Amino acid sequence: MKFAVVTGVSKGLGESVAKLFLEAGVNVIGISRTKNDALSQIAEQNNQLFTHYTCDLGDVASIEKAFNDISKTLYAKEPSFVYLVNNAAVVEPIDQAMNIQAEDLAYHVQVNTVAPMVLTNLFLQKSLEKDVPLISVIITSGAAERPVYGWSAYCSTKASMNMYTKTVSLEQDELKTGNKIIAFSPGVMDTAMQEQIRTSSYDEFMDVEKFKDYKKNNHLKNTETVGGVLVDILRDEATVKNGNIYYVRDYL
What we know:
Blueprint: E1 2-7, H1 12-23, E2 27-32, H2 37-45, E3 50-54, H3 60-76, E4 81-86, H4 102-130, E5 134-139, H5 152-175, E6 180-185, H6 192-198, H7 208-216, H8 223-235, E7 245-247
Parallel strand pairs: 1-2, 1-4, 2-3, 4-5, 5-6, 6-7
Helix pairs in contact: 1-8, 3-4, 4-5
């Protein structure tokens, strides 16, 4: 039995990835603050398992509890392979760096950087303990590679995730574990995050009109299309290149 653990399954790319895994015969464990009943129905239709765990990724104690609960259930089923998809992220606060409140910045870093690192670290440990191969993917962004006015937090956290991916992949190669970690850059998609971005003022986010034009001109990618690319990459386990940053633009 193969399992995929997906964060942020309540909507957007996370929901699409979970749905596509279920349709491909992979059981799914979802992590989010809000339950997604539609995924339970899709799992039933495809004779797969979908289990949801409520977790605030902005709280380390909540992450560790969720992992402990998940690992007890997951590894009791003796999975043959585990995929970990660190999808959940926040874009706010969007503003000039000097205007950002410390509390808002700390929460942003917790969700976008600390949470995927903690989950990946814990699953890597467990994969060795249980001798179950793992591929972990972190959803990154083009913002990781270029500065964007008003996105000091988002650019910085996504850039840190790219370096984390490269560093951990180096460790796994040196240790010859067979486990892999990659990053996936999905481009601009039609999601709730994009709606948040479009509500920004020009002073907060200088490119706001460009993002409004993406929506107006139908240039936002469908999350199911993008999710399909990611699921296809992951399911061809032997060809996944450890430490690689995959870009959806190379496939669509």
